[in-house]
Amino acid sequence: MTALTNVHLLSLVATLAVILAITAWSARATTSAEGFSLCGRSAGPLLIAGGIAGTCIGGSATVGTAQMGFAIGLSGWWFTLGMGLGLVLMALCYAAPLRRSGLETVPEFLGLQYGRTARPLTSVISSLGILFSMVASGLSGIALIALLLHLTDWQAAGIIILLVAICVCFGGMKGAGVSGLLKMAVIWTTLCAAGVIAALSLARMPDFDATFPAWPWFSLLGRGTADCMGNLVALIVGTLCTQTYIQAVYSATNARVAAMGAMVAALITIPVGLPSVAIGMFMHAAHPDINPILALPMYLTLYLPPWLGGIGLAAILLSVVGSIAGLALGIGTMVARDIGAGVLRITADRWSLLLNRLAVLLATCLAVAIALANADTYVLDWNYMSMALRGAGIFLPLTLAIFWPRHLPGNWALLSMAASTVAAVVARFVLRLPVNPLFVGMAVSLIAIGMALLATGLRAARADNGKPA
């Protein structure tokens, strides 16, 4: 049922070859650590948008959204909608001050505000959250490659690691940005065509109302109001704290270009989920017994012309690989800058670049291994958890550092970040509380910050009272 024709294979391989070749060629002169991680701070709006959207629109935005559309309908749109809204907020409020700082990583920014210890702590917290997003795309990629090429999951995982190495290790941010732009063009073309065809097919179904009642299939709150709103907040907060997206902002030529790039990325990201939802719903009606994670690749194989289906499959594969690559690049940059340079004192450009690339490969291998051990889980659930964990500990200290700097003492900021992250992890993995771990973590963070401001205010009041009249 999913056997590929020669035309499928030809268009798939040709699309992959062209995009990967252009990616490698575009970044052929990348020899410095700054050129690798920040594109030499010369990126324009489109390259920034490509770097951000190319990471946002990965396996979760395509395969994972179709999987959720297959299971619950329109609620699957929340992922791209929430990330897009987060990028809008980044463009309007966060991009300009971050770019004006002239730094490279989120931990570096927080380290300047709260002390050197904040750098490695923030790096570890951010990397943990980003790793879970890589797992989400790894789940999609393994399922896709194993299905199409009739390989074992381990063999499919090996191919993903190889493709990530090509996309990132030989191009860095510029390679990720160029491949992101190319990938967006292909995905928009194929997903829009496939989504329109799926929607028209759904409209022609004689028993449509019986198969898809308005609730829950056509409600954004189909998974429950609390669950959906919690995931929305987690996506917005997590997006604003993600090193990979902020790294693209840092690569801009100036603050205005950074904001423009983030806004373009938002406009690209928000609509992408809708055709995936339509495809998932169609496959629910036409093939109710399949594994939901296979809804999108099977649709592209069975219901599109072979040449277009092959291009679409290549686009989905590239979206998975590009997302993993961009996220891994964020981890690699933090490891090189905030642990390598900040803790281990590795400052030589050559060794910093090597450490960055090694961290990218190790993070990819770890994420793929976790995905292999959790093959039957929902893709989007990993992303929601990822956003919650990275936002719980970092969002409030980061926001204060940007908009109200030098008011939160460094030791209290460290306490806030560490305690809130531990609280979120315990709530999710130990206590398994029904509440979103983001809210648990942010509540702890808010309490710590409130105590800090109260203590600071009391000290200031005592100092004023002790002054002679």
UniProtKB/TrEMBL annotation:
PROSITE patterns: NA_SOLUT_SYMP_3
Chief place where the protein resides: membrane
Segments passing through the bilayer: 6-25, 46-70, 76-96, 124-148, 154-173, 185-204, 224-246, 258-287, 307-332, 353-375, 387-405, 412-431, 437-458
Subcellular location: Membrane
Protein's recorded name: Sodium:solute symporter family protein
Topological relation to the membrane, as annotated: Multi-pass membrane protein
PANTHER family: SODIUM-SOLUTE SYMPORTER-RELATED, SODIUM/PROLINE SYMPORTER-RELATED
Native organism: Rhodovastum atsumiense
Keywords: Membrane, Transmembrane, Transmembrane helix, Transport
GO cellular component, one term: plasma membrane
Similarity comment: Belongs to the sodium:solute symporter (SSF) (TC 2.A.21) family.
One function term, GO molecular function aspect: transmembrane transporter activity
Top-level taxonomic group: Bacteria
